Inosine-5'-monophosphate dehydrogenase (Phaeodactylum tricornutum), 468 residues
Amino acid sequence: MMPGHIGFGLNDIDISSQLTRNIKLQAPFVSSPMDTVTEHTMAIQMALQGGIGIIHSNMSPEEQADQVRTVKKFKNGFITDPICLSPDNTAEDVFKTKAKRGFSSFPITEGGKMGGKLLGIISNRDTSFIEDPTAKISVFMTPRDALVVAQDGISLQEANDVLKISKKGKLPVVNEQDELVALIARTDLQKQRDNPLASKESVNKQLLVGASIGTRPEDRDRARLLVEAGVDVIVVDSSQGDSIYQLDIILDVIGGNCVTPSQAYHLIQAGADGLRVGMGIGSICTTQEVCAVGRAQASAVYHVAKFARKHGIPIIADGGVKSTGHITKALCLGAGCVMMGSMLAGTDESPGEYFYQDGVRLKRYRGMGSLEAMNKGSEKRYVWDDTTTAVKVAQGVSGAVQDKGTLRRYVPYLMQGVRHGLQDAGCKSVKEAQERLYSDKLRFEIRSPAAQAEGGVHGLHSFQKRLY
Ligand code: XMP
């Protein structure tokens, strides 16, 4: 991309952009609906940072709807799904839960369920001197009448004041029936930061969340459950979106994937509010190798975005993003947002546990068209009808990616990288970059393989690459 004239500071750059016709994000980042990338923890953190997460569908419709509900219930600083125990549980249950979960305080409720009547609380202070593992919690818990509690509706600031005055570590929040609705932890409050960019809907101020569905008739029921759970956007997940299978189930959704204006045309005619662009270019994809179909991502983004813009439909550049430079390029080629898999896998918020290999901390990352993921149910993205399911053809691989730490630091790094890119190109916002693109003021040049080699790190014996 040719540099432009810089007449403004980094902080003046606006990277907000459209996800769909109706949803604008402060950070143009979307986490991919993949089972090693987006479940509720990822979706919550993406939304807090100004982006959005799309919950994958490689689970039952009920589980997926529960994931959506967890994101919608999230209130900064409030734990809305604390682990509860019942007064009939034993000291041994407490020790086991402590060891498994890594924390030591548990509300005690009727039935041991969230939403049950609050009966007490257990903390280290209650369990330190217990010698009999069979002792019932009811005997040694701090009972309800000795607890400081807050009423539902309390603000985070008020809760903070209560904890300060009472010098307690935990504050249970109850409703008028004295049922537990949330728990506030002092340690969490200390970690709380404002998230001024958070993606929220305007009425209930809940975080925005998306979810993917497949293209089979039964996916209509999945969509209904997701809508009931409060999902804000549905992504119809199919590697080749221009098919009769997709067109007749489109709701108010993001359609895809597509890489040509004619595919985009069919999806827009069917009512898509946003388009996902990219085929066979993801880091775990083998579609181009197996099916010989796909398109270079920069060309796909440029041509589809230019076409969709005429219909007022934003596009998401999906896959192949390896750096902040790639994100900047996608936005400057017309994308409203970028969707990432491998960039966001291997963060604290992605599903799965870290493990070590050759001294490097890794997390698993796999294509939804890999045999491993398809065996768990994701073949619906790649297999068109039931007569073909006897032979599965993998269109993806599975592997691992390096640990990138928490999104709380990683997303601000991505945002700052994009701001630097826009600044160098002389554009004060994503919108301006796209206006300049379409008026031929923002210029791209094709790089030869030699120029690409020159553009990377070269000539060093060894080097260390730290991102931030
Ligand atoms: P990145 O490069 O961000 O790509 O890791 C993520 C995107 O790749 C797509 N995807 C696949 N494509 N075979 C494919 O051909 C697969 O197994 C596969 N799994 C995911 C998807 O669009 C995702 O957002």
